[in-house]
């Protein structure tokens, strides 16, 4: 969809303490609204009246309120305007309003310049009038002098407020530039308004290049489908991925704000990386602010810790605890899907003999060779588990005992090939026993392992008997 640029529209009014319009200082509204000498509250949309009166109360305490949005009822049309309200010394207010949201701080400064220029022009014209014309009487002269003094005081007050606004802007700029997080602001059309230096670095875009572009042209955010925060996902699943793209605007509309959410950020010009982000809507959903940080190092550490917690350090296969957890999960899936599952219990032959004759380092090498052969003989969803010592377990989902025996024949053949290539005086071999979990005969985990263990010892006993007969 092609978006047309919003036309500038705004006005500056002087109001008394009851919101009565005393003067129209400036008016560039598209509709050329006729304010006349009416009460300004008549132009406020009923839904925004409470907010408007709250602003008037606040400005009496703070002298200046800026960046607030109010909906105006202009004929049959309702439109959102940004307000700056200044309180002068004569219990009156200067109200500056505009419909633009982009580059709002810069806009404040421009409005201040317009207003200062207006005050200066009024002051000069009154001063010239006083100097050029002889006052008709003391009363007129005193009134004009009073008005001139009032304008001088107003200008001083505006100068003070300009300095405050400038100081606030500089403080925010320095703060946003120096923090370690990336900061992005976007308007209600999802177009980029601001990037701090960290966001520029992480996204690979300069603010000057990114400003005015839609967020999705600069970056995309993906959340894992099974994320623990259980956020409702907005878009379709991405092909070949367990992550789906989210629409921040729709999510914020529903949730109001997002706090410390983990996700994947994909800039248009850079590689994806994990982030933790928070986001919130600006007043009345007229835009959004996103704060994010790169958590790649933390994620790498978590991955390493998970690996250490679940992996046998010598062979780099699943350790006993993680392996039995995996077996239990697969047994539950098999029961739910009325499918079969088979395990193979493996005992490496003569490990003690290798340790005694060649040293424990050689024994470790034997276990690593066996583990490597097992891993390269299985399907993608099959797992190798080291139960401890010389014992391994193969978990073969969606397999019956016949399929498991075919896998074992392939493994045994590789053992023989490795033995033939081994320059040490021992064979690489193992005994095995298989047990099947099926819908017809469901066993618990201990029963299944004991059955496979018993079958393995039967084979080991037969092999020893055969050797003794030679």
From TrEMBL:
Pfam families referenced in this protein's UniProt entry, alphabetically: GGDEF (PF00990), PAS_9 (PF13426)
InterPro entries linked: Biofilm_reg_signaling, GGDEF_dom, Nucleotide_cyclase, PAS, PAS-like_dom_sf, Rev_trsase/Diguanyl_cyclase
Keyword Transit peptide carried by entry: no
Keywords: Coiled coil
Boundaries of every GGDEF domain copy: 339-470
SMART domains, per the entry: GGDEF, PAS
The PAS domain, residue ranges: 168-241
Coiled-coil regions, chain positions: 137-171
NCBIfam families: GGDEF (TIGR00254), sensory_box (TIGR00229)
Name used for this protein in its record: PAS domain S-box-containing protein/diguanylate cyclase (GGDEF)-like protein
Organism per entry: Halanaerobium saccharolyticum
